[in-house]
Amino acid sequence: MSETIKKFMYLNRRAPYGTIYAWESLEVVLIGAAFDQDVSLAFIGDGVYQLLEGQDTSESGMKNFSTTYKALGDYDVTKLYVEKESLEERGLTLDDLMPLTWEDEDDDWAEKDSIRLVSRDELADVLDDQDIVYSF
Amino acid sequence: MSTLHTVNKSPFEKNSLADCLGYAKEGSAVLMYEDGVYGAMKGNAVAEKVAAASGVKFYALGPDLKARGISEEKLAEGIEVVDYAGFVNLAVENDKVSAWV
């Protein structure tokens, strides 16, 4: 049986914690990663808040799932697109986000950035190129 | 009559904060909590609206800020951070609570 690899895009549009969407997206991403598909994530709108550095839920009694983003590289999920316009609207820059990296085994395990800062137009092209887009 | 207005939705997802600001009178208090705390950050697209609300005192719930990675230096000027007990105090100090859910 021939293996077909499809392009899966998980589009994250909501802030973490206030609703369950961000966490559910991560769960589905991790499940999907087990099937050796071409997986990408994009963060637009309030979704960019999911990647803010320094999340600490110790006082609010919620599960801090932000550390899971750092593990994505180990599951070969290495393409995280962040939309520039959404950051700007929220007064944020890349420096406000968690540093997320992956190790490239084809390049002597060199550590590479997972986050790709893109404009809305560029991201529209990326989305257009996908086989399946899941919106959370 | 003083009112405590509470906002728990992101200003980019719902118009709760904008509606609240339109109705918050001088002398009232606005408490941002849950995803509402994003409205307390400086330099974002709603910061000007918050700054323009004259005579309104703004508060944000500390544990919700912390959960979302919003440190003190990321807050707009004039936002006072309160804990859960502070939330209760605000509810008691004001004559009534108006929740902009």
From TrEMBL, chain B:
<dbReference type="Pfam" id="PF04077">
    <property type="entry name" value="DsrH"/>
</dbReference>
<dbReference type="GO" id="GO:0016740">
    <property type="term" value="F:transferase activity"/>
</dbReference>
<keyword id="KW-0808">Transferase</keyword>
<dbReference type="GO" id="GO:0002143">
    <property type="term" value="P:tRNA wobble position uridine thiolation"/>
</dbReference>
<dbReference type="GO" id="GO:1990228">
    <property type="term" value="C:sulfurtransferase complex"/>
</dbReference>
<dbReference type="InterPro" id="IPR007215">
    <property type="entry name" value="Sulphur_relay_TusB/DsrH"/>
</dbReference>
<dbReference type="InterPro" id="IPR027396">
    <property type="entry name" value="DsrEFH-like"/>
</dbReference>
<protein>
    <submittedName>
        <fullName>Sulfurtransferase complex subunit TusB</fullName>
    </submittedName>
</protein>
